[in-house]
Amino acid sequence: MGYINGQWVSARSGKEFAVVDPASGDTLTSVPNMGAQDAEHAIEAAHRALPRWKAVPAKDRSILLRAWHDQILAHSDVLARQITAEQGKPFAEAKAEVMYGASFVEWFAEEAKRVYGDVIPSPVPGRKLLVYKEPIGVAVAVTPWNFPLAMITRKCAAALAAGCTVIVKPAESTPLTALLLADLAHKVGFPAGVFNVVVGDKDAAQEIGRAFCDDPRVRKISFTGSTEVGRILLRQSASTVKKLSLELGGNAPFIVFDDADIDAAVEGAMVSKYRNAGQTCVCANRIYVQEGIYDIFAEKLAKSVAELRVGRGADPGIEVGPLIEEESLGKVESHVADAVQKGASVLTGGRRHVLGGRFYEPTVLTNVTPEMLISREETFGPVAPLFRFRSEAQALQMANDTEFGLAAYVYSRDIGRIFRVVDAIESGMVAVNTGAFSNEVAPFGGVKQSGLGREGSKYGIDEYLEIKYVTLAGL
Ligand code: ADP
């Protein structure tokens, strides 16, 4: 069922589509295949709920968000199992996603109470100049499958805290976690129409997306997904001049200098590259290693990678699950084949896994060069391509030679070098000497064609607020 206006609803068309377990290829269940009419229904509900929701005192919105957070934690195992079932990531990672996702709800429950305005000293006598912040209006969250829970809470908690009503359109591969979140939101008592979920398959996504973009009542779209779809939403939103937040593709560079702690760099690369089987937008996509430590780094990394346990995410001790769909394997295979054909060597992995289905061997490639496909496109799979570099300038040149700019990783123990690289690197986020950096208190987002806006942190709520300036004269 979809969730619109506080009710569980079918698609107007009566159609459904199957949700599949990527580990087995089995159908888990079917959900409504909604379309433009259902999107319209959700917009209507969210629009109608808006005046009352934004008039709810921030403290009361905060209490509801806090209750939602507590429910998410109380159901963390159920949610994690659902994430693993429809997305494939190992249960421990799914559990970590639930905690990460919940942290945004807690954070924005707190931030809801801290949306302050300003009083500006007037340049002319007898006036008061005031600045208010108001919720922008109906907000839409279009979310991806790689974090079926956290990408929803990161957007919706901020929107709800700001006083917006929201409509979520989860990815077609992972609608079930979104519906569980809706169930919990329903239980804690968000008023009807404040939180809505519209579900549909890949084709329906286009129609639903178009309906959101065309409707002037939708004032905000927050999207996480491919750069290609981000561009479509940006273009389609031009006619109604909406505010957009976009979290798009990454292609993250991971630079290891000669002076780095090699073991720490290997550990960081493992975390950054193989988490979620390489399917995150901040996964290290291009690993640049300075020539003095290249061979030893490659050897140590390959040893750790060869030990990764691949299998069904629901089984204990599994570290790498399946890829989300057959198409994803095709992309990984084409990147590896192209690299090998242009002179790269396979140090470990390099093939579909013996488990079959959507499993691919965790892979390390050496002698990778900028001419290869893998250096320009996000692989979104468990493949670490190692590039060799000589100088800092060369590493920076290669790292910045991309249209993307989301995350970058740097390993060095030279404080001067660290600051030079941090200054020169073109990305929204830089992780120095660590492979993991994302949390609710820090601003997540990219530069260049990796996106617009920031999520999480004290900045995240601004994406859902408008400034109103008021002059008081005749006092
Ligand atoms: P990915 O490459 O991660 O699958 P996509 O960008 O294809 O990312 O999908 C991210 C989200 O965008 C999903 O919820 C998907 O259904 C949705 N989507 C895909 N195409 C469109 C579109 N034309 N308009 C609106 N949403 C879309």
What can you see in these coordinates?
The chain contains 14 helices and 20 strands. α1 packs across α7 (202-214), α3 (76-87) packs across α4 and α3 runs antiparallel to α6. The chain has helices at 36-55, 58-74, 76-87, 91-111, 150-162, 175-188, 202-214, 227-236, 262-274, 294-306, 326-341, 373-376, 392-400, 415-424, and strands at 2-4, 7-9, 16-20, 27-32, 118-120, 128-135, 138-142, 166-169, 195-197, 218-224, 243-247, 252-256, 284-290, 345-348, 363-368, 383-389, 407-411, 429-432, 451-452, 465-472. Helices cover 39% and strands 21% of the residues. The strands form 5 sheets. The protein has a 7-stranded mixed beta sheet, with helices on both faces. Strands 9-8-7-10-11-19 form a 6-stranded mixed beta sheet, with helices on both faces. It is α/β, with parallel strands linked by helices and 475 residues long. The model has no long low-confidence stretch (mean pLDDT 98). The chain binds adenosine-5'-diphosphate (ADP). Residues 142-144, 169, 171-172, 205-206, 209, 225-226, 229, 232-233 line the site of adenosine-5'-diphosphate (ADP).
